[in-house]
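quick one, 262 residues, struct below
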Amino acid sequence: MVVRTWSEIRTLRERLDPKEYAINNKLIKNSPIDNHYSNQNFTLVESATDQNIHLKQRIDEFISNEKHLLALIDELQSNVRNQEYSSKRTYSSSSSSSNETVITTSIHMEKIQDLTQQIETLKTSYADLEEKYEYEKHELQTMIEQLREEVIETDKMKQFYNDVNHEASPTEDMLRTKFEFELKSKLDTMRRILEEDYNENISSYKKTQEKLEQENQDLKIKSNQDLEQKTRELRQEMDAMKVKHEKQIIQLNNEIDRLKTN
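---
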């Protein structure tokens, strides 16, 4: 709107130049040039000439103001472009911050996956331990059965000996009692060692599993908290940037309106 108005003024100025010349000629023709000017005609010529000069000055002033206003408009447009560029850079920086958040979240997820794999490995080890325990238990039971058979055979031999000799020797009773005691002690020791080893492994597995599950849970909570914090900060930055941009746009519009008014 402003540029079109000053363009019209320039056109008026260009059109006025030949009209000014024609008016001046007409005024001169209407006035006597025989060195006997009347006061009325001279006053009319002087008034018209002064108005013409004043009009030219006003037009020149309008043209000067137009150039100044165009320069201000160019400056304002340049400021707007710079602001848009700054906004894009800020948005790009915010996008980079968001990418860092995504990278941090990815690292957390990799840690969670690693802990999950460790838990699966421990479960496999636990299954292998149970299988080993069952195998050793079976071997121990087999050994016990063999020892029982040996005891039975020993009893049979003793009975056969008693039948032959018709009486039992005190020495044989003592040997038999000693053998049974040693056998029972060995079986109890083997059973105790096996159970302690099994219980220790089970306890260690449970503690390790609970620790890994707790670390996994803590990592998930921290990852969610970090993601929420980054998202909240990014949203606040975007809101602040939007408010700042809107204020600058309002200021620019007010400046343009003020210039239009002037």
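Residues 2-261 form one domain.
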